């Protein structure tokens, strides 16, 4: 044993006393010794003064003196052992040194010595404590005697635990108390004994051998005829529940539950009957309810701590509870009267079964509860189901007012002291409903079904119960309107069932098993069926019931599995289903109520709410591509637009209320209701913009400006789209900005102005409240994190149609002077102030010149300054796919030469940026498979067989030898195949157009500046590929001029304010440029091919200028300015993406970006700069040979190829930048041919039907 000097011992004792005094409150509040130890072990984490305690300082110095030199040596040794170029983290060093120290001999000797010292000090402190205890024992007993005459007060809580109690509770003392508590003792003796028991520390009582006997006695004393004494016993129970550990409270709880069980089973007790009801002013009832409430309070608290104790404790509590609640009286001797069971009283104090909800929450307790219910207490579930069945039958057979009379808690506003039998049954029904609703959430709970009921031939299955729940919504009556809405909604059956079913909808596995089947869906929709037939929905059906059903349907429609059920029914592949699916019924009903073609609840104030609820369900459906396809025949956009216009006129006609008039409040309320309904309809219309085809329908309504303005107003309030959507307006804005009309609407609404103002504030102003104390750091990234949100919003916004509409035909302001307070409000102003900094005035007008200019370049050219400017110049001057061009890096490299790339500032482009690995002009006509395909062109089979044979041979080559299809061979394949198709009337979609112009006729016509720039880029790329010769620029110019004149012959006259509709196609014709290179620069062959190709349906989707203001399109399609590639191809790309690559689809929505916008960009520029030339050829050839739907399949294959990259860039929040900027590395059309063939088998009928119908006027 180590020797400790007296001076050191005294010092250490003082230090320990200081420590314990400081943490006294924490330790005394601990429920057990183990918890107290845990508090001390984690004191450093919880006590901010931990390092100021003298004892802690002593320990730190002791460790430093003993181990300090060894630790320093270990650190030096570890550091010197590392390689010079290798880096290691601080955490690694700490872990290594700590491990070596703990394994050392010095550490073990120190711990041994320290332990011995502390044992001596602690032993001395304990001895001194026992001496003090002996001396204070007499004083403490005197104090206790003085207190013995005072009784236990209402607040029985003991503020101290056994840690600091000087009163020691011995075995003999408890036995004495037990004797004194005997009913034969005088009242004063019993009261004093009870007071002594209440004053004793719970842990001391628990550790006595007589504890079990005490529990038994207390159970008996609960029935003591002396109300004061029995009440004090109950308060002892409450005190024990509050202050004692679980293994003690468990025994108290079991004794209370057992007492109640015996009390209800005993025939001697006067338990109320169902006929008589319950008078809660009766002393016996009051006392019984107190006991049940105390039991219930512990039931609700126990789950928060029982997981920290052995499972058997929890199981004993659960079993004692279930045993009590399963008590049923033998009614044989009572004839007509039914004695109330314990469950009725529990339902009174916990109507919504909160105790069961908490017990079922954790797997730990849920497993035990469900196991015991299944084995021994299934009757509890049976009676709950029975209650629901009985209430439903009551609703069916009785009138609404009679049912309400039997369920006064639903609507009775006055305080009552008496519950009739009918009211008790209703409360029990609500309790049963909540219990069953919670049970159905869990798999093991659902396995308890089917349930066999008395007096019922068939068992109640899971589906039967769900149908019963849905029927309760319709059949249970609405409570009177004069009652308190808050109280009413909490306990009305329809609200309770709706809440339960909505919770089930949120649990995927549960919803699939319970709700997503035809049986339940038919039950939900049956009253709507009846209403449309002109019959009554249900006996007590109200507007509120329909709104509840609509809420459930909207919740179902917001989940993929639920939407599928609504759209296609339970058996998607079954052809036997003749009845319309849920989506059709909902759409028909919504259309009728919107058009007011159906007479339900005439004159009802809530009728607009019914309309809004069901259009909200439709919104969930048509907000998806597949849902819109099903609902298009109902023209809901027209019905909603018509209702909005009508409501808008009403809101304008409402007179301004005159102050002092009696009708002020009513007029004000009417105005608010109309405005709310108008906004609801605008929101419904706006959600058509969630899909490309829906956006086209929205534009046809003429309400896009109002919808976008509404969206902007909601956006400024930072509101979500609706309660069923997880993300905001990002995807809607991206869709809207993909069209010219949408961009104009965004501009006129103030959305773009607000976005630019926010951007300017972030770049040039910063936050005024932090500037002085926290200067803004110089940004290292091209886009500072503070501007990231604004940057991504601009990337989403600035599609080519939007850019042309917003800045087309505008010049830069180029002012001589700019005010420092002048904030850009237009896109052209941003270009002027942040990008084209061509004057000192512009530079001087910027507070943060470098950062703002970097942002400007990055935003529009997706790049920054300095080294990155070189990257920009190379990128915009060099055309090619991922293997065809070499772009300089944007960051400096490590080493002696951080940037070995030459700066590009004048032509020609340095050769180091040109790839040498490009396969150029490969002509492999000698290949046997290619010879077979070419031979097919010479054979004179039946046209249909010939086409299929050619396509089959083409697929075979694309899978086996894709590189063959290039160069001269590709030219011959395309020419022969298109020639044959154009001569077959069944394959021709557009009529033949006579064209007689010659080169001389078009020579003097001019191309737009965009077309001229595109010509130069095309020729430069063609020469790089060795596919074009000198003079190709003039030939391509002539081809483009002929195409413009040829297509102009087929254009319609249209008056529009949109820039894109005022003249020729606004962009460059990349498809014609691609064909010109494929045809090796032969202008005659190129134009002849285009004339033949223009008759085919595929030309509408590959050659975008083909349908620019074309007379072959419906007039409303022309006026919308939306190309079929957008409202047809990209619509189906989004639809298939959701089904085939769901993770990618979700990533787009999380990023607030739309797949349709990037696909439109890829297709418009014919994948230039995204794919290598050979893949561009394969893209064009595949769509021509196999059909325009392959355009969709190729895009899906690309997304599948990019899945991991897309998920990664979604996480780092730059998905838009990645997709717009990066080439499609590693993608080859031929690699995904088999996958695309599967897509063709699954989706071709639907896609081709819609593509074929682009010429059809919308209905």
UniProtKB/TrEMBL annotation:
tRNA processing in keyword set: no
Region called Disordered, residue ranges: 133-152
Biased composition (Basic and acidic residues): 136-148
Main localization (coarse): other
Keyword field contains Cytoplasm: yes
Subunit relationships: Interacts with CDK20, which promotes CDK20 stability and function. Interacts with FAM149B1; may play a role in cilium assembly.
Function in brief: Required for high-level Shh responses in the developing neural tube. Together with CDK20, controls the structure of the primary cilium by coordinating assembly of the ciliary membrane and axoneme, allowing GLI2 to be properly activated in response to Shh signaling.
Protein name per Swiss-Prot or TrEMBL: Protein broad-minded
Organism of derivation: Lipotes vexillifer
Gene: TBC1D32
